[in-house]
Amino acid sequence: MDFNRRQLLTGTAAVTGAMMLGSPATLAQAKPRVVVIGGGAGGATAAKYIAKDSAGAIAVTLVEPNAKYQTCFHSNLYLGGVRDYASITHEYTGLAKIAGIEIVRDSASMIDRDKKEVVLAGGRRLPYDRLVVSPGIDLKYDSVPGWSQAAEEAMPHAWKPGAQTLLLRKRLDAVPNGGVIVMIAPPNPYRCPPGPYERVSMMAHSLKAAGKDRSKIFVIDPKESFSKQGLFQEGWEKHYKGMVEWLGPKVHDGLKSVDPASGTVVTGFETYKNAALVNVIPAQMAGAIARDSGLANASGFCAIDPTSMKSAVDANIYVLGDACIAGDMPKSAFSANSQAKVAAMMIRGELVAARTFPARYTNTCWSLIETDDCVKVGGAYEAKDGKIAASSTFVSKTGETAEMRKQQQAENMGWYAGITADMFG
Amino acid sequence: MSRRLAASVGFLAASSFTGACAGDRELGAYLSNECVACHQISGHVTGGVPRITGWPEENFIAVMNSYKDKHRDNPIMQTIAGRLADDEIAALAAYFGAVTSQSSAK
Questions:
Q1: Chain A residues in contact with B42 (beta carbon < 8 A)
Q2: Residues A201-211: pLDDT tens digits?
Q3: For the structural domain made of B23-98, what CATH number should be given?
Q4: Which of A301, A312, A381, A389 lies closest to A341, judged by CA?
């Protein structure tokens, strides 16, 4: 009898214990939490799609230090005077209105992967069930001999939008007729493969429009070839004859050094002195938060699972956009936006059992060579053999009609309006 | 007997056509993600990217198939449509067809 009674009491205690253990679990079930680091094409899109498609069932916190966002895409069009700065500037007010999104104006200083918390510069800790890391690129300031972060005023990069974009435009506008511009092009892989060459085109457009057609742009490139090369070179010959000279490594024989104080660029073959403007676009790597958190490999970028965009090293983290290694996809805003939608779907699948479909990705990059002369390259992509592989690609052809190129520029402007509406709201 | 057979063939043809239009909206919503990187879900038109919301489903399917078959020549649309199966095109037609400028399918 005693034995039975004790057994009964023990049993009751066990039940009570289970109930007590049960209550914190019930609290934790309140709402799954997703933190998104970075409010660019990857992060803003991911935050929006997770929140809207889960109809508020997932609490999304977007961490972004800037109140306003200037797009890197179309910043070359600002440089060329084709569009104004206000038109490439966006706010987060639309995103903030979507139910389930909290926007925190701060930067992430650390990811505590064991505790699943993001520590902000301001000290706040944000616990997460899933984390999206979309910090974009950092510049390798030591990749160009003689150049440094301290020299980015004298020799701007303008490869991160904002103050640098404004500075480069100011410096371009101040180039005298006959002045020499030298662009140091970046090695692969880097943000926006056709970007440097669209920039050369828009610089030449600006010079020509200002009647400064005795000026000349030299491109010192570490690469043997570049994106849409035939199209750009055809366009430079057609629109800016004698104003652009592209030099591959066999021709310039290596970039030896730059001197920001005197505007000098030394290559194995030639020394450019007193350049009116030197635009240094250095080598690149994933943003610091991704590298410091151990998400990047020796390449400086982050390996991902091509079927989901999940980090190869942490099952609770997704890495998007320029910071990740996306196989055949270029580092572009379009790619980041496409990857974000796959990640958002997979995250909803994991956290709220939403229906998921096999990942598929797309990208298109338009480049403006001269007003009304726009070319494009793009493709469709899928997970194949452990990477994101192109299943189909296309690129503009040399010799296309002026009408077709003009139509492509209209498409380019339409895409810009479309993707920014898609990102912000 | 032969008349009944003809009637049932007619019925089958009609139902398979209806089936092509009755797309899976959830699949369509996912597939639509790649469309709305350029075509605005609000129906707003900027530059050279047309509105694709609120179309009759049959028209949407016909246009997508014309890109898939390369009768229309935009290489982006040929690439997008080229990998879409018939049921996926039907799903997109159903999804975008149900989006009107007044609806809030943002």
A1: 421
A2: 999 999 999 99
A3: 1.10.760.10
A4: A381
